[in-house]
Predict the 3D structure of the following.
Amino acid sequence: MLLPARQMPILLLLLPLILIPVSLVESRATVEQPAGEQLSSFWLRQAQDSLRERLARFKDSITDVRRAKNVVLLMGDGLSLTTLTAARILKGQRSGGRGEEARLAVERFPFAGLTKTYCVDEQTPDSACTATAYLGGVKTQGGTVGQSASGERVDSVIQWAQRAGKATGVVTTTRLTDASPAGAYAHVRRRGEELEIARQLVEEEPGRSLEVILGGGFGKFAGERRDGKDLLAQWRQSNPKGCLSRSLKELRNCSGATGKLLGLFSDNHMSYHLAASKDQPRLSEMAVAAIEKLERKSQESGDGSGYFVFIEGGRIDHGHHETRVGYALDEMLELDAAVEAVLKMIDPRETLVVFTADHSHTLSMAGYAKRGTSILGMDDHQKDLNGVPYSTLNYAIGKWQSLDKEGRRESPSKTLSPTSYTPSYISGRKGVHSGEDVAVFAMGPQSHLFGGIMEQNLLPHLMGYAACLGRGVTLCNRNQDAKPVPL
Ligand SMILES: [Zn+2]
């Protein structure tokens, strides 16, 4: 039915009011991902273009032609920039200083940049899609490990390294089947399929060729299985010279072993360092055992082909999820000790060391606390509008707010301790990830490429370039201009 002409202007005026609510409701649904992002080829091409851009940027100014024989990738799960700063202060305060002036081991790295962590379907990502990015070079959907969003298999840089003849290892403080370590060797649609992930680690490539596997999650290999498989017995059978350890003492006893190294130090995640028994190796001890083994294996190969090791401080994230910042910071300092130990063992002229995080957390460092204020405590002079003091460290979302019985905020000063819950602004079941960029630091051959802001899936391409791994542009083939990138 046609409207009378005199009603048309009124309708035109009302049109925006009619359309606005509809467009708001639909805004989520209508922001569709370009179809290309579902495919590996989209991200691989994009990363290779970005790598070429970087190479062109440094063409006339950087003369580093050193090839990385070894690569050490260290990763702090949930390691936000605030976590780095707060852990640095805690490190300084633990050694009797005011704290702010202390230095983390990673501060010796000459190059730093930021990575963008979003995934194909998530503004704020999880550890599965980010692992697929920083280990496989492909962004995927949340919860997916080692596959593109359309389900294609994505090989990790660990696999690239094995194809290049390098010895490889994976070290973590979480279950070995958790999303981050799984990104090194597994291919599953959902990260929760941990029994399948464990099977892939023992039965399939590149897991079965890993020289070093150290972490937690014993149950996924034996106790919790219902398929009748004893994956540890299988591993022993395939590796008659292999050394299986379940404690620090046994790990030390494995140091002379000629075969592969498998360590499962807990049924579940390894204990927080603050709560661990002396039988549990520290992350730095696992890192040292791994590099000693990989170095020896590389030398045995005759041509010293080198190694690639992925070392994760995985429980920083868990401390943040519990909103117990004391645990998160202590786990970060365990990673710091591991970096320190690694730097003592490697030759930076031939080893590329990269340190990064998978995603951020909502920890904030708020107010104007005076120099030297305990980072796990508070400066009583920093007060809200009601005159109630607040702690320096808070989470945006968490399960503890310092409220009294009437629901009024009270000072958390009496309850704060190195292991207590940390206040949050918004009440939630647990702490949540946050979506801002995370840091990446690099030292060694080609480390100048790790600067500025980059997509997270560029990282394996940069490591691949430096160590001549993978099918893209590398230091070894960069002059073959016509070389197509088989994606
Ligand atoms: Zn998490």
